[in-house]
Amino acid sequence: MTDTQTPTTPASLTGIRVVDLTRVLGGPYCTQILADHGAEVLKIEPPAGDETRGWGPPFIGDTAAYFMGVNRNKKGLVADLSTQSGQLFLRELLSQADVLIENFKPGTLEKWGLGKDALQEAFPHLIHCCISGFGADGPLGGLPGYDACAQALCGLMSVNGEKSGEPTRVGLPVVDMVTGLNAAIAVLLALNERRSSGLGQYLDISLFDCAVSLLHPHAPNYFANGKVPGLTGNAHPNIAPYESFPTASGELFLAVGNNRQFATLCSVLKRPDIAQDPRFIDNAQRLGHRQLLHETLCDALAAHQAAELADVLMKAGVPASPVNNVAQLLAHPHTSHRNMVVEQGSYRAINTPIKLSRTPAQFRSPPPGFGEHNQEYGIN
């Protein structure tokens, strides 16, 4: 999707209609994936709007950049679903829709007579995806869920942070976004199954489950040895050297996964003796002497420039990278080469990473204004 591309061929989800009742991030991230690939996504906001429209500064016009990042290619409608007329309108839409995606607090749709059982009876073809914090039942069932709280509750914070510091939230809403990805996968699985059965189904996607699913390799390690994982900073719990190192200019991250790569690293640094040291001869020994290895490599890297050395190492087969900030990443020539920034007029955002050869993602419209398409869909 660039400012020169227009939708001239069917996309992979052309003909699929999605009613989007989600707000904030997990749900909108899911529906933007579907919209990018051709689904007609009707984003229905309450009269107060999706709260992320106000999550700024920064703002683009009157709308927060946060909202703009996850709502392109959608039609924007406003309806009060707590009223009888709003519920009637929703039922009319669902009669012609393939997918409903919502992230209401469990019990809200039931209060309106639109719970999962009622929807399945009225619209047997409908795929109903519910995104919630914890699911509808169980010890935490029905409680609201938020990304940072899920990170704390589900152990992600306990393994994120410097060894000498405190548990730290991952610096982006990883649980919300992975929940959105899993929701999109679930919708596509259900659409595929419906081709043979002709029936929709209920998809139960929770932040809690998705956060727990991210605990690799920490959960497998705990299952194997019974040791509670802790903070290791940038260091990997199973591999060394696999962390960041200071250089004369910036931080360098090394992700050395095998002995061959380690030997090549030491050769590039003109320190083959490090690879031959019995304390560093294989990964088990390197893990056992992690601190000494870190100090030894810090000395060897001290005179190098992070970006230049990373380029040499990568070309030699050693995974390495300078630690870039957001501006450096967005200006990187490979970001441009991979078409990872979509630009259309004044709209600029991260592009989809999902690249299909015959039915690529298409830019059709920027994020909708509040209630922009009400008249088109018969809302006064």
Task: Describe the overall structure.
Pfam families: CoA_transf_3. GO terms for molecular function: CoA-transferase activity. Keywords: Transferase. It is built from 16 helices and 13 strands. The mean pLDDT is 95. The longest helix is centred in the middle third of the chain and has 24 residues, at 174-197. Strand 3 and strand 4 (63-64) form a beta hairpin. Helix 1 (26-36) crosses helix 7 and helix 7 (174-197) packs across helix 8 (207-213). Strands 5-2-1-6-7-8 form a six-stranded parallel sheet, with helices on both faces. A three-stranded antiparallel sheet has the order 9-10-11, covered by helices on one side. With 380 residues, the protein is an alpha/beta fold. It has helices at 26-36, 65-68, 84-94, 108-111, 116-122, 147-153, 174-197, 207-213, 218-225, 259-268, 272-276, 283-288, 290-301, 306-315, 326-330, 333-337, and strands spanning 17-21, 40-45, 59-60, 63-64, 74-78, 99-102, 127-132, 202-206, 242-246, 251-255, 320-322, 341-344, 347-350. It has two domains: 17-214 and 337-377, Crotonobetainyl-coa:carnitine coa-transferase, domain 1 (Rossmann fold, 3-Layer(aba) Sandwich), CATH 3.40.50; 242-246 and 251-322, formyl-coa transferase, domain 3 (2-Layer Sandwich).
Annotate the secondary structure layout.
Layout: E1 17-21, H1 26-36, E2 40-45, E3 59-60, E4 63-64, H2 65-68, E5 74-78, H3 84-94, E6 99-102, H4 108-111, H5 116-122, E7 127-132, H6 147-153, H7 174-197, E8 202-206, H8 207-213, H9 218-225, E9 242-246, E10 251-255, H10 259-268, H11 272-276, H12 283-288, H13 290-301, H14 306-315, E11 320-322, H15 326-330, H16 333-337, E12 341-344, E13 347-350
Parallel strand pairs: 1-2, 1-6, 2-5, 6-7, 7-8
Antiparallel strand pairs: 3-4, 9-10, 10-11, 12-13
